[in-house]
Amino acid sequence: MREHVLGSELAESLGGRDRLVVTTQVVVHQRQPLPGVGVLGVERDGLPVGSHRRFELVVRDQIDRAVVEILLGGHAASRSESRWRRQAPGVAKSRKESVDRAGPPAYVSRVTDALLLEAELAAAITAVAEGGPPLDFDAWARRIFAHQFERNAPYRTVCERRGVTPAVVARLEDVPAVPTAAFRHLELTCGPPEAVFRTSGTTSGPAARGSHLVPNLALYRASALAAFSRFVLPDGARPSCVLLLPSVAHRPESSLVRMCAWVGEMLGRDAEWFVGDRGLEIERLLEGLGERERSGEAVLVAGPTAIFADLFEACRTRGRAFRLGPGSRVMDTGGAKGLRRPLSRAGFFRECWAHLGVAGYSCVNEFGMTELCSQRYDSALADRFHGRNLAPRRLLAPPWLRTRVLDPDTLAAVLPGATGLLCHHDLANAGSVSVVLTEDLGRTVGDDGIEIVGRVAGAMPRGCGLLLAELGPA
Fold this sequence. Notes:
This protein has 474 residues and is α+β, with helices and mostly antiparallel strands.
């Protein structure tokens, strides 16, 4: 078992463990058991979906590495409530002997193939982030397509209507894409969701909010934190977090909020949230920024671009300006959505310098979507840290996310630098649909980036409409 997956302390301790408690998502009734692992507490065929029950895995020999990776990936009890424990030697021996004599329990279960795949991918992404071997994107993409074809019924429908199966795919470009509009109408998931994230509805209205059902939060967490570290914290800084967002308790269906909560946990700092039931808590925010300015510590200020605009306006009207400590940075997202007045990118940089003392090269724009588990980020901070030219600024992706630019009508690839619809291939979407066609217009910049130039106005592009029709009734 690899220490970079498990951690040295846990890897050393596993040899003495023979029991652990896991949640329902880890266990489903199957015909074949995972070698060396039985399950106690399963009283009938199948398991109650959405149950909060916990089940006890009895490890008869050495625990399988894949099981541990899933447990560490977020499906076991958290460390604070974990019931990892040693049995008294006599009890452990008695339990082991009784299991061996009786053979597998009447209802033997195993960790699902779906969770195994997602746990393995989460571990691979984390390894890349820690300097490990690169991902084989093509191999993972083919494996994930086969997995989604088997387990995601609506997606399998569109694949079959196009005559595309895992056996006949010659190029990754042939893996069928699903338009973002489909997330408003269908449950595109490969298994019971651990979380459901919903779009804001700012573009199409609240009645047309899409839902992304995520079976494995551990994979989303691994992807989000690895990309955030790569582009927002390339220098390894550990700033305190000022979040211009509601907390997870207020917005549990927001993927952005969940990601920022994980960032705070990763940094080991108490993240402060400054959006409450009545919106931005401006007086408390100004007080908090003042305290951090006086401390001289590095600060990460993160939130939607529109909320930053409200902060800048409050600073102007109150005559406030802050000089946050060295190493401070800004991460904004959402672009022009929700802005009450126009604010160009250059204007945003000027405001950050004037009101927060954060230079433009330390301002990182994030491009994320509820329908994706991976994000792109502005290149400037990473380029500066690695000694590269800051121009042109572009949106960079982690190695497990690729984007193509397609003609809105034919869905054929456009020439480099030409504008078209953005189609993302996100390996971290292994639990839903990995290829997602958006209504965003963009173009490639250089050989590693893209630029968002807007959204399709008016009717849905013909190419998106045709794909959506393929997801309808047979």
